[in-house]
Amino acid sequence: ANFSFPALMKLAQLPRRTASRLPRAAASLARRALSTQPASDDVEESVHDMLRQTCRDFVEAQIKPVAGELDQTHRYPAELVAQMADLGLMGVMVPEEQGGTGMDCLAYAIAMEEISAGCASCGVIMSVNNSLYCDPVMRYGTADQQEKWLKPYASGQKLGCFGLSEPGNGSDAAAASTTATLDGDEWVLEGTKAWITNAHDADAAIVIATTDKSLKHKGLSAFLVEAGTPGFSLGKKEDKLGIRASSTGNLIFEGCRIPKDSMLGPPGAGFKVAMSTLDGGRIGIAAQALGIARAALETATHYAQTRKTFDAPIAKHQAVQFLLADMAVRYEAAMLLTHRAANLKDAKAPYTKEAAMAKLAASEAATANAHACIQVLGGMGYVTEMPAERYYRDARITEIYEGTSEIQRLVIAGQLLKEMPA
Of 227, 321, 330, 421, which is most buried by a Cβ count within 10 Å? Predict the structure, then answer.
């Protein structure tokens, strides 16, 4: 069949009961449309719009009603993650033949923002599986590795995590003390990875370990390790300030033996795997932060129009209007930076600086908007009856994980100095 732009518009009018398969359907339809006619910005935009609306409908119907309870009980949202898998959201950028949805990075950023606007915990579970697990396996894995370690994860049947940080090295990724020693046909892992998102729910982990200490960062390698492997255990589940429905903990390796073919990428490529993975991951976290920033803006704006003081909605007061205006500017600016980074990645252009800019701007916008949201709501912003205090707690981590704001500034400055030599 010759699918075209009108066909995409027809897809947008499908009954709501078909929405659970819409992202995969839209992606497939878009590819066929683009293969039978010149690429059209209108076609791509319509697919992104449909994806956004589908995710927004899902959030309103399924995520928002339980987001507060998930946060308060620290409960992993298994049923929501399964529904997100059905929506094709656990492997957005992975080709369909490898178990994913086959959409672009901009689609991923859009979906991440929408899911995170409803629940930042659901957002980070999705982000880690997409950005930190599926993406490096897709880029560095062999065909055999992708069959085992990618397909079931991109489809959402299984969940992945990424082990880089350690108790003694946060931002200094090259100083990994976890080691991998070759013993016959097996690698033996020793060490601990810390602050690992999805730790207690993941079926496998990518682990960065030192294979040759004398080479420093060039002596790091990446490995695929299945949960339940003898010698691989978990530390306690951390009791966190925010994103409390996602699990965070240590990955502990004590004489953990894995097959020789478990190495992801060539020997010594671990640092490259980690840094390139974090570049893409920063787009995901920027999008997560965008969701929080927008949710805070929407909550504050809606409340300001219904709460009255001095016989008028507080939205009529200039002081409140200034708060709302600043929130909107922060969100819109960060959104444009995030979409710019995603577009550059889609174009296979360098995007390290732009991803860092997006992550820095979006995370700081999320924190500032959540703060302002509480200010607009006053006392109501400080109690769990309203989601403002949850936004405030969830936002804070976006300035820390996948590179602190200070690290983002170092990355940006380093790239600028290369681009603008004296």
Answer: 330
